[in-house]
Amino acid sequence: MTPDYLTASSRSGRRPFPARQLLTAVRALRRDLSPFRDGAMSPAPRPKGRVLRHLPFALATLVALDLAISGTLITEGQSDLLRTLAALTAWAQAPALVLALYRPVAAWWLSLIAALPYAIGGPLTGESLNDAGPWPWTAPGLMAHLFVTLIVACRLRPRVYFTQWGITLLVGGILTVVLSPPVELNGLLPWGLLSAFTLAVVAAVRGRLEGRRELRRQEALTEFERSRRALLEERTRIARELHDVVAHHMSVVAVQAEAAPYRVAEPPQELSDSFTSIRENALAALTELRHILGMLRSEEEIPDNRYTPQPTLDNVEELVANVRSAGLRIDWSVDGTPRPLPQRVELSAFRIVQEALSNALRHSPGCRVELEISHGRSAIGIRVANSPASAEVKRRPSTGHGVLGMRERASSLGGSVRIGPREDGWYEVSASLPTHLRD
């Protein structure tokens, strides 16, 4: 009685799983053996020098010419027909050596088919083939087909060149059985043993090289993961320190600025406005600090607007009003027509303006500042210049990294920053940022 599952499989028209797997393998092998495509080829090494790059082609050409000439001369003393067949085979096989460097499968088929005129026509002439060497190849033809097989083995999958090896033995065996030429040496067995040994060596060497290549790849991945883990740990530590130190003190500043006006009966309006400005700046710093902490603690790149919208050039007016309230005299202007810019450019431009104004406020209190923002066709220009500090105001030193930060922001976008004193004693920050970037 037929099992139910076999009956159901037959009714549905589906082949059993091994049959489908075998059919898939046969189709893949047929594609690999197609002379019009060379799939799954290993990349050939590409030397740097021009001479070394053309050396394989030159060597293959010389060997092909030598084997072609040898295949022609080896049948000297034989009949014209036999010599013609040998010469035709030799000169047809010779291009396969050169072609194997570029199209291995097509070259192997050419080498196999080119051997047929001598292999079939030689016995049909009725002459003795002993003086011409082995059969179904001449000695040069056997070497040519062996070289082509080795080149194929260095470039293609093992299943491809072992299948080609089996096809060669099959074709030679069929010719031997059908034609049965009276020869002392059948070259099929020596070729089969020699090619099997060399193919086994090539397979072992390729397996070792691929194993070492995979080991190096795994080592590189391990080192990358180790570096990534160390980076994440360091970022987490920095985020923790920022939160414990900076966030605490900024929170205290905001609370004290909010409570300070209530400690004095009827404080002046200017004093209340000053404390209000201090509180707003502290809260803004806390908001941006939360954004930075979120980025540091995340393993993935976080969009700039995940925690809070990042400032753009539209916020420059608020920034100017803020520094004016701190006592900075500033004149600013915008040249050109403002237009939407990539978010990275907007943020970097605002940060450069912010840092330049902060440096002027910190290092040259009481100075006069000129701010210019120019919108060009392919770049946006920023110029912030401040006069020397007032004589009666003491300059406060700083050891920050504002200048380095401005340079890094500009260089990350492909722009430039010039920072330094002018001849008239003013200090100027000039930046140019490209606007053709994509977010």
Q: Which strand order do you get reading across the main beta sheet? A: 1-2-3-5-4
Basic shape: elongated
The level of helicity is: 55-70%
Q: Radius of gyration, Cα only, in angstroms?
A: 41 Å
Core attributes:
single chain, 439 residues, alpha+beta, 5-stranded mixed beta sheet, 62% helix, disordered N terminus
Q: What would you say about this model in short?
A:
This protein is of the alpha+beta class and 439 residues long. 62% of the residues lie in helices and 8% in strands.
How are the elements arranged and paired?
Elements: H1 4-12, H2 17-32, H3 50-73, H4 80-99, H5 104-114, H6 116-124, H7 139-155, H8 158-179, H9 188-259, H10 269-297, H11 316-325, E1 329-335, H12 343-363, E2 368-375, E3 379-386, H13 402-412, E4 416-421, E5 427-434
Helix pairs in contact: 3-4, 3-7, 4-5, 4-6, 4-7, 5-7, 7-9, 8-9, 9-10, 12-13
How would you portray this structure in words?
The protein is an alpha+beta fold. Helices cover 62% and strands 8% of the residues. The chain has 13 helices and five strands. A hairpin with a 3-residue loop joins strand 2 (368-375) and strand 3.
